[in-house]
Each structure stands twice: as C-alpha cells, then as structure tokens.
Amino acid sequence: MHPLGVASAQVAAFIPRERARAWAKRVVGKRVGRFAIARTAAEFSRSFRTDLVDAALVDVAGVEADDAVAALALEYPSVAFVGLTTLRPADAPGLARCVRLELADVLVEGVDDVAVPDLIARHGYSARFAAALHTPPSALALASALQLAAWRYIVAGGGRPIRTSTLAAALGLTREHLSRSFGSGGTPTLKRLIDLVRLLSAAELAKNPGYDVADVARVLKFSSSAHLSLTAQRLIGRRATSLAAMRGVDIIERFVREQQASAAATHAELPAERPVGRR
After folding, report:
1. What is the CATH number of the domain that holds 228?
2. Could you list the residue range(s) of the whole structural domain that residue 10 is in?
3. Are residues 162 and 87 in the same domain?
4. First and final CA of the chain: distance in angstroms?
5. DSSP for 134-191?
6. What is the C-alpha to C-alpha distance for residues 223 and 218, in angstroms, rounded to an integer?
7. More confident residue, 66 or 246
8. How far apart are CA 183 and CA 93, in angstroms?
9. Same domain membership, residue 119 and residue 71
10. Does 140 share its domain with 86?
11. What's the whole-model pTM score?
C-alpha cells in the first residue's frame, strides 16, 4: 500500500485494561499497518526510540494512568497522542489529563470504532508531514507529472527509507527509466531528493524534547548517527546536531545552494571544447 495510506501507519498503545486491549486489537489493529500494545510503561516509552511512531493510544478510562506515560505527549509532540475512554463519570480525571497535556483527540471505546482510520489520517505524523509537503517547494523545480508523483510518494513515507525500485514499481516504471527521467532539466537526482525528504523529517523529529540525534537516526533507519550527520553535511553543509534549530525552508535553501555549487564545480572541471576550424 502507498505510504500515505492509514494501513501503513505505526501506532503504539499503552492499555492496562484487558477489555480495552481486546477492543483495540479488534478495531484499531485491523485498520492501521503496525499496531503494538506495550505491557509496561517502560516498553511503551522505548517504542518511540525504536520506530517512527505516527500515533500513540493511551488508556485513560477509570484507571490511574501512569503520569510518566501521559507525560510522553510533551516529550514527543510530533506524535499524535490519543486518549481512550469509556466516557463514564469515573473517567473525568483521565479526560482532564487529556486536555491538560493537549492530546490530539479522544476515542470512546465501543462508539468510535469507525473513526479510527480518519483520526490517524488526520493526526498521524506521516500524514501531517505529507500534507505539509504535498506541493514541492518551487526552488526544487519539480514540474513534470512524473516528478510530482514521485515527490508525493516520497513525502508520504514521512522520512522513512524508500528504495528507488519500490518507488519505480509504485509508479509503473522500471528503476532505470525512473532515474533517467527524473533528474532531467537540472532538477536534483532521485537519490538526493529522497535524502532531502529524510533530512526534513529528521529536522522535525529533532525538535522533540524526547529525541537526541542518535534517536532520530534510529527511528528513521539511518545506519548510525554518523550516517545521519554525513547526509546532512553532504546535502546542506551542516552537522546533524544543528537540525533541531533549522526550519524546513532553511534546509531547502541550503540544499539548493549546495546543489548549485556542486553543479558549478562540475561544469568548471569539464574540459573546454576545442573550436572547430581549419588546421
């Protein structure tokens, strides 16, 4: 399925109540791509540093929710935290906690079954990331139908690694044809564009108080934090530690400057053509 699809979303959950766990497995688990219910608060916390989590489901109904679990919403504001409740009078303290921590939404067990896909599609990290970048920045000069389709597929992944062969198959092309056609007219190569999108996501995630550079590299599946830093240095001339302070527009501008400088250097190194004339 296309990365933008709800069935590709990663949802982490902390649900102490057995009945609510059964409901979540039956309803949520069938409507998202990867759904993992943590058995302990520590396991739930670790899930954010292991994979790119789009949304988190936290049970707040009639139980003394672990304050550390609820407070993770403040540590990872890029993740859409959603409360789960039965909407009974005893749930009032849990609902108040949802408001205080500015959770994205609240699901009512047994009532909002059909609302799950729409909620993840509206609030999930990957969906919001893709929506923000749906129209490519004009500085990238992506204009053809092929370029736009490829760009939208790439950003739909939220910064996860994407193979050119997978992208080509999704667009109904061979990898060779896609790579050859994409970078025409001075636009960035496909590989550089994929890396740029991953860097934009890394910068967004780096703004979360709960993430350091190593965490960001891990959830976006860079081989190491050094790999992330080398990618940043190659594309924008900055270290990965500077990403948290950079806006997306700053990254795009630096990327375009580096692209232009690289093209100018390549042109300068080309041997001059000999004039055509008499010997």
Report:
1. 1.10.10.60
2. 6-127
3. no
4. 63
5. SSPPGGG---SHHHHHHHHHHHHTTT----HHHHHHHHTS-HHHHHHHHTGGGPPPHH
6. 7
7. 246
8. 56
9. yes
10. no
11. 0.86
